[in-house]
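**User:** My hope is that you can spare some time for a protein that puzzles me. As I understand it, each token names a local backbone shape. I would be glad if you read both lines and explained how they fit together. The protein I mean follows directly.
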Amino acid sequence: MIDTVTIDFWGTLLADTSENMERAKALRLEGVGMVLARSGQRITYQALMRAYDASGQAMTRRWRENRDWTIREQVSVFLSALSSDLPAQLDSETLRQVEEAYITPALFFPPEPSPGILETVAALREAGFTLCVISNSGRTPGVVLRKLLARYDLLNHFTVVTFSDELGYRKPHPEIFRQTLARARREPGHAVHIGDDAEADVGGAKGVGMRAIHYIPNGDSNPPSLTPDATLRHFAELPDLLKTLST
């Protein structure tokens, strides 16, 4: 019987658009540039773009190992891509302001809840399921993603919320699933994970003995080697789907 449901954040609980992400990226770079300018560091937008791309390449190399950066490490890598000694030149207050400019754009250009998610999460909690979030983070860390969940009255429904920048492991690494379930005091054999990424969500969950639901709102197929226990196109279908998987 399934008593625990874990859910991915990006593309599952909340969905973003490429246009929205580009706006957030521009705000991030402009905000960091303004903070640095106030500290006497005159850096062009083109240089910020180059540093953004370079730091992204560095982060991707670690992400391929299913490990993650803390947000402080991310900001240091980004600043070092502008100038290797720049982090050491900035005082603690300037570094704090740079970090704030770097992590907060999603609060101004937020992703939207997936169709039916608000009602379904509330219904599952009311029905007695233990609910958790298991998600990889990117340039926006868990401390900000929690604020987005709270904005949509979702945060209080989840017993455990795990983001990769805080734990150090990224899906599909088994540790991010195991530690979340351990904190929730639940067993993998009674848990199902829902996410939009076949490798990270389906493969990762099944690798630790959980069942997996592939969220495919647009009807995309998944690789045969990562066959989920079920597919989901709209969250209104989830309660009935969980009943079927529990039999």
Remarks:
- The first strand starts at residue 4 and ends at 7.
- Strands lie at 4-7, 14-15, 112-113, 130-135, 160-163, 191-195, 211-215, 230-232.
